[in-house]
Structures are given as structure tokens and as C-alpha cells.
Specification:
The protein is mainly α. The chain has two domains: 3-74, no CATH class; 76-108. The protein contains four helices and two strands; from the N terminus they run ααββαα. Strands 1-2 form a two-stranded antiparallel ribbon. Helix 2 (16-28) runs antiparallel to helix 3.
Length: 108
């Protein structure tokens, strides 16, 4: 990446730290005490109930915790799933080589 591209990207691209700081804010916010001006970036939307009361739609805290853990590389199951997918790919490649050698015939 050129120096000029890096300069442009600095403002347009979120860093890992910025992403994780945002996720931490979402997880730590108290919905009842949310300041709609200060915390507007944490609000997904606004709905009104049948009585006209305003209801804020907020991000899913559990999903934010999972995403943060994934960004931090803390999810062992993701690493295990990646290894399993890699092994499945190796197995598929081996089976393709066997099928090529036997010209599509299965041997019993």
C-alpha cells in the first residue's frame, strides 16, 4: 500500500482497536441510562409502541461479546473448526487423486 493510500485509509478504515473499543462500549452500556445524544452511535433504531412511547433498538450484547472474542482470537472452537475444515479439504483432495487414478471406478 502506498503512503497516500495509507493516509486515505486511516480515516476511512476502522482499526482493530477502534472496533474492539466500540464493542466494549456496547457491552458496557446500560440501556435504561443511555444518552440518545452522546450514545447515538450505539442505537440501531427507534420504534414506537401502540401508545406512542419511544423504544430504542440496541445491538445484541451477546453477539458483540462473541465478535470481540473472535477478533481477539479467543474462540477455541473457531480454531478447531478451521483445523477440521483444513483436514476435510485435505481429505477431499486425496479422494480426488484416488478417483483420478482409478478413472472414476470404485474399488471394493
Amino acid at each position: 500500500m502506498t503512503v497516500k493510500a495509507k493516509e486515505i485509509a486511516n480515516d476511512a478504515v476502522l482499526t482493530m482497536l477502534e472496533k474492539r473499543m466500540f464493542l466494549a462500549r456496547v457491552v458496557r452500556m446500560k440501556g435504561a441510562a443511555i444518552d440518545e445524544t452522546k450514545d447515538a452511535d450505539l442505537i440501531n433504531g427507534v420504534k414506537y409502541d401502540k401508545h406512542g412511547r419511544r423504544m430504542l433498538t440496541l445491538p445484541d450484547k451477546r453477539a458483540c461479546i462473541e465478535l470481540d472474542a473472535k477478533l481477539a482470537g479467543e474462540l477455541a472452537q473457531d480454531r478447531a473448526a478451521d483445523k477440521q475444515a483444513e483436514k476435510m479439504g485435505e481429505l477431499a483432495a486425496a479422494l480426488a487423486r484416488i478417483q483420478h487414478v482409478t478413472h472414476g471406478r470404485t474399488e471394493s
